[in-house]
TrEMBL record:
This is Molybdopterin dinucleotide binding domain protein. One of its GO terms (molecular function) is molybdopterin cofactor binding. Residues 34-96 form the Molybdopterin dinucleotide-binding domain. Residues 90-112 are annotated as: Disordered. It comes from the Bacteria.
Amino acid sequence: MSSIRLLLNPTRTAKQGVQVNIGKFSDEYIQMTTTLTCHADDMAAIGVSDGDSVRVRTEHGEAQFTCVQGKVPEGMVFVPYGPPTCKLMGGDTDGTGMPTSKGWEVDVEPVQ
């Protein structure tokens, strides 16, 4: 088990948009925003199986996610925006008013 560097691309999902009407504190919304999708080969390199917990670190913070195998390119991970991804963002907005939130290099490791 080890930490590997991957490219994180958080985004909003259509299902997430529907859930906003139900509430961001619903169990389904929380589960959605704490699930990280990863390529099978990257999961093997990290040393985790489907459903295991991983810690994602940036220079700004860290967050814990449930890791699931999915259709993402090798070397990249996906997670819907939510409170955990906010812990990973810095404050720089490049003048846009929104923190930079795409293409972060992150360290991903198993949670012991």
